[in-house]
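Quick log. Single chain, no ligands specified.
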Amino acid sequence: MKEIIYNHDGLKDEDITDTVIRIKGLIINDNNILIADQNGGFQFPGGHLEKNETFEECLKREILEETGISLDDSEFTKPFMKVKFMNRLKKYLFKIGR
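-> predicted structure:
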């Protein structure tokens, strides 16, 4: 499986304070690829993995929510790409008044 890592801040694994897993699906039907509009941009349908949810359950749920398409297990193939975003939550301190 191909892995792409985005680490714009030069973080090490021990610097990571937040992990978000998103599952996306590549849906091909009659040589047409389904993409979703999100805030004026395009991406594959999918979304955040919920607690105690498998990748397959997440993908089925998200695709149904976003497109109305119901998938069954026979329509899945193996994952082909993993994208890792390395993030650190930023904490801000605001002082109000004097």
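Residues 29 and 58 are 21 Å apart (CA to CA).
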